[in-house]
Records
---
Amino acid sequence: MNDAFRGAVLAALLTATPAAAQTYPAKPVRIVVPVPPAGSSDILARLVGAKLAETWGQPVVVENRPGANGNIGAELVARAAPDGYTVMMTDVGNLSISPSLYKLPFDVIGDFSPVTIVSYSPHMLLTHPSVPVKTVKELIALARAQPGKLNYATPLGSAPHLAGLMLAHRAGVRWEYIPVKGNSEAMVLVATGQSDLFFGGLLAMLPHVKSGRLRALAVSSERRAASAPDLPTLAEAGNLPGFVTGTRQGILAPARVPAEIVTRLNTEVVRIIRLPDIAKALEAGGAEVVGNSPGEMGSLLQSEKERWAKLIRETGFKLP
């Protein structure tokens, strides 16, 4: 290989990725949502996807691939071509919990390129209106008086499940878990009185609280939510300092997606979620706009993975 040819090859390699990024996207983009429709991930994927389609002039297709606590959809994205045309909108909490409970065919850290956390929405502790409690302390007292009588609807191994597990662990109570396929199904069971309580994302569950189908006892954020200012936090209502959980909805791409494309995705998504109408809609629904960097999202995913692994070790929980 002569020097001129070697130089031409090197120049082509150095310029190929930026050129690809400049033309991205040149075809439809798919956002995989690894949970059923109507949950927080689905709501946000469709909201952001519609705006991306307007900006790019390319279709952005939302595809629900539920199953195995989101792991079916996550594997699909982890194995997708690293070109930026398949990405995932997911609850980062669910993704960070899975390595402690499942033998996964992918690595939640190594097989994804973080793009950004779109929003944070605290969990709400919710009951059916017939449950004879109106405060967290009353709920804990009832659970202590009648161990195992209350039942908790949840997708086992999910972020809402681990929130309930953490509450029971810290409060020294026990309730029975009713497995469901997604948190939208948990909502239906509690709203119809077939189950007693659950933790649900504020963004998705607030309308059902306002309609009277569900009763909210508290939120799991550090401070009260602007969209539900009358609801106390778990820390203040249950004397549970530092009790913070919630749904952190984030976008991830497969590993090895060119950095320039990850940056393009991050820039566009952050711009969209900070548009006044989008930010207002999210905040009205109880979600806090985040829009952090890929590096910050990656660090959060790692710390959440470690946090939930510790709780699972302490409680000895195992999937049935």
Note: The longest helix spans residues 294-315.
---
Amino acid sequence: MKSFASDNYSGVHPEIIDALRAANEGHAGSYGADSYTAGATKKFKTLFGDDAEVFFVYNGTGANVLGLTALTNSYNSIICAEGAHINVDESTAPEKFLGCKLLTIATADGKITAEQVRNRIQRIGDQHHPQARVVAISQASEYGTVYTRDEIVAISKVARANNLALHMDGSRIANAAVTLGTDFRAFTRDAGVDVLSFGGTKNGLMFGEAVIIFNSALASDMMYVRKQGMQLHSKMRFISAQFEALLSNDLWKRNASHTNGMAKVLGESLRSIPGITITQKIDANGVFAIFPRHIIEPLQKEYPFYVWNENLNEVRLMCSWDSTEDEVRAFVARVRALVGTRQ
């Protein structure tokens, strides 16, 4: 059964499997003292600068929490979109491990604006109020929309003017880079991002993410924080080898270009069906649509997917690196058939 529920449902890309097999030969140093970690770190430094600090971790929640740890104290607050992953889909991990308050902003498309951030910064210096310290954005957003470089720069300027840092959750950063048609650095470090969670799992890896810190002063204690946060992998070569492969031969770009393309085919095909409304711009690999209520349950029995907003019957459909056009067309045909049963 093929799924449109999540790009986490897909398997591991064959080139990543090959990298894991190669890393599995013989012995190697533990906890990052191996040639694979050195190689992957070098590739990240090529992308982001020689002074970028790279920390490999198991998963996205760990990457976000550890990255935010580098920027906050427990009396701080973090400004983010209401639907941000750190607010909606990471349980209470941010609050438990950071001790910070999340200050959310309602958005129609998953993206927050510089003006909204400016209005959310309040009561600085008031000991009775959590002190805003970080603006956190997701690229791509949880609604599949992508921030332009100018939008990120504008948010960064507001943050800087108020002594705040900027964190980016880049679980789907490869998809965003393909949409923007630029290199990673242009819309991260060079746009004012201080700490980046660089995603791998949703782009073909078996497991593994990376925390990239662009200010070395913020990274001074990260090795201890990673250990305390239970994100230090003893056999780290199996994370690093995957990233080394992902960042070689444009594998990241090939995967993301394909998933973005499949989402566009899916969205445009669904748009032609009476009774279906596409609710968001299709920037990355997600399609958000309002379906007639009567088709959702029978369709989910054949193709797993999530209902994003139950009140609106809005669903989320995610394409993966291994999604095919035939699978997309078959899904659309089934939607069309189910819609037709009530017409």
Note: The chain has two domains: 14-246, 252-340.
---
Amino acid sequence: MNAAAGQGKPIAVTCGDPAGIGPDITLATWTRRAADAVPAFAVLADIGHLQARASALGLGVSCKAIGEPGEALDVFPNALPVLPVPLPHPVPAGKPDPSAAEAVRASIEEAVALTLKGKASAVVTNPIAKHIMAHAGFTYPGHTEFLGALAEERGHQAMPVMMLVGGGLRTVPVTIHIPLADVPHMLTTEKIVETALVAVSGLQCWFGVPKPRLALTGLNPHAGEDGLMGDEEERIIKPAIAILQKAGLDVGGPYPADTLFHERIRTAHDAVIAMYHDQALIPVKTLAFDEGVNVTLGLPFIRTSPDHGTAFALAGTGNARPDALIAALRLAAKMAKMEAAITNSDPC
């Protein structure tokens, strides 16, 4: 049975920054389609750029342009299906070019549009360079916020929430792409409650967890030590836990973040709600650096991504590992299958 067998729709994959490792790992993932049971996907990218990178890397990959995502299912076993998104000019590996930003943005927009139209089962995004995109007028801190805006522009409600999956962990940061100094001011009881509710819905709809168990971290060392090291736990986090528990959810905390991720305690909860970015990402990247997956909950479509960056220094060297992209594709396919199996439920 080939990788596309049993799939009704392909996954829409964006190539990310063309100067980064996105093209490399996309090509390498296709070469491992049989060995790693990679679900069928169509990549939105400049076909000439992909073919040139494949040649430079010595990969025997044939790229084939397609007009509709559905064509990918027949093409995928023998060639990499490409939905063309032209670059203005060639972009060398490892040399980011702001002039490519419009094509990068267009690929994301088209992947979302195709998925919302039901032509693709999910969106999987390769890494973008936020500072390069910002120079070209991209005003969003990252993919997460941009995807939420795209959904709302198309008439859908969205509250994008980041979930990191890997190493036996699922972690959800309440605050994401803001300076650490701003976290205590941005953290509110309402934001914690909203984030937890989105996480619960996502776990139920896309991960098949009927009654999710959540553990909330504290913000301060030792979860504040009863107010000795800060009062955010008492003022902000504990009231959120009380609201969630009153709603009938299985929620505990606030727990000290430095003791919440060890092996013995991981089986006691289905996800950890962390108060800020690094508190959630460090454990997953430590345990599963090459296979961590970033999932965006709270969208009207499934989106996953490798949990790593553009790695410009590795681009074009042949040393970039595709494991996280493979994991992101396989998780997206699993989520789509789970969503299809659940009936009479609210959309994620």
Note: The CA atoms of residues 62 and 78 lie 8 Å apart.
---
Amino acid sequence: MARARSRRIALLALLALIGGVLSAGVAAAVSGGGYQPSEQDCPLNADSNDAGQPTSWQPQSPVPGCHNFKLNVEDHNGGRYGQVWLDQTAQNQNVHSGGFKFNTNADGSGPGVSGTFDTNWQPFPPGSCGLFDLLVLPFDVLFGGGGCSPAPPTPPPGAPTITITPQSGTPDGSAAQLAQGAKVYLGADDNLDTGEHDGVDGNYGTAHSANGPSDGGAIIVDWHPTQVAAWLATLAAAPGAPGPFLSNPVPLVSAGFGSCADGICLGVYTAKTTVYQGGTAGERDVYNYSGKQWDPAACSSGSPQEEQQCNGGPGQPKNMDQYRKAEKQNVVAQPGVQIYEDPDPQASPIGPYPLPAGYVGTCGVTAGGGAAPAAPASPVTNSAGQVSVSTGC
């Protein structure tokens, strides 16, 4: 939000790196709709930018139990069998603590092991380079940016603390649920960037806009064999309708990767995936801008001042909540590759705004829109001036 552009680019690079590692041998990942504050063990407003929130923690401080990086192995009933995390940090603090837990029972009990660590160390003092600044400093300098001014790391105050706790008990067999449905979730957000807090504070017409931080992403691989029978029944009931197949061509397992930073979103999915939810009945593909009302470019959740820049003028929504209400209830990504402007008014676009969209996948091809010149009127030009060819999803 109010951070350097290089940090957003670094977040995308970090998530892409994670996606590449995990996708070796599988089609991986999902973001937008894949990233969930609940999967990070965080409330929706954990990244509030301001002191105005009525919470039990201090503004721009870490929420107890909230994580800015999380790996979960879980069943479809909410049981978790494996977790690895990094703790959310306060503004201007570097990541320094985290932990893990593995257990046999869905409720967290049974044989297993857990542990935590804390370096108790802030090597880079406030006002110097943030974590993501350091990651992209060589690239920033290479492409003509000024870079940041790294300060010499401070010496460690002492030894890190590490705890490992074995867990005893009796397996209750609940792990068998993983055969009927299992999910691997890996999510990260820009609190990793030296404690960045860039979510709405609930004031100035943002009380219903909290949706986690503005920037983040996730990788999800979801095993759901019980859905195959319903998928086959749907195809049999309407053999001439290609939509159910094209939107979910691999019903046994779905996977995806996606991330959003500075309003720029990208994603690769194997099945239709919800990436955002507004307040107006209906559904739209996230890369299809027909009917979309864009909030002003200066509107974002980076600060209370930016939250007050969301008045769209005559005939347009007046605040962030109204822009969210005007969005479709179900904004979806389709199987394939897509790049698009973040539909969430919390985003902090860097331009061009709105970002021209692009999509190639089983549901067709779409290109243009937003800041791009409108395509000439034709049978394949939609109301947003995009060239859009649909296969029938």
Note: The first strand starts at residue 67 and ends at 75.
